[in-house]
Amino acid sequence: PPHHNSVLQPPVSTHPGPEFWCSIAYFEQDVQVGEIFKVPSSCPTVVVDGYVDPSGGARFCLGQLSNVQRCAASERA
């Protein structure tokens, strides 16, 4: 007889999954900086860093976000 862990389970739902599984908002103090970054379901993991590569897909780079009201504490951080 076949092993019972080889039996395929039916899907939990037949509805397609969401286009984006995660939304990230970046704040300095209490002010949101930049747009909300949406992570597509095709990217199961996301990296948030301070580099300046164009954001997109699985990487959200904060280095290129400008904030004209950026305070010294945020600049140091």
UniProtKB/TrEMBL annotation:
Q: Among the record's GO biological process terms, what is one?
A: cell differentiation
MH2 domain residues:
21-77
Acyltransferase in keyword set: no
Would you tell me the Gene Ontology cellular component terms? heteromeric SMAD protein complex
Under PROSITE patterns, the record lists: MH2
- One MF term in the entry's GO annotations: DNA-binding transcription factor activity, RNA polymerase II-specific
Could you list this entry's UniProt keywords, alphabetically sorted: Transcription, Transcription regulation
Record-linked InterPro entries: Dwarfin (IPR013790), SMAD-like_dom_sf (IPR017855), SMAD_dom_Dwarfin-type (IPR001132), SMAD_FHA_dom_sf (IPR008984)
PANTHER family given in the database record: MOTHERS AGAINST DECAPENTAPLEGIC HOMOLOG, SMAD
- Name the record gives this protein: SMAD4 protein
Per the record, the gene is Smad4
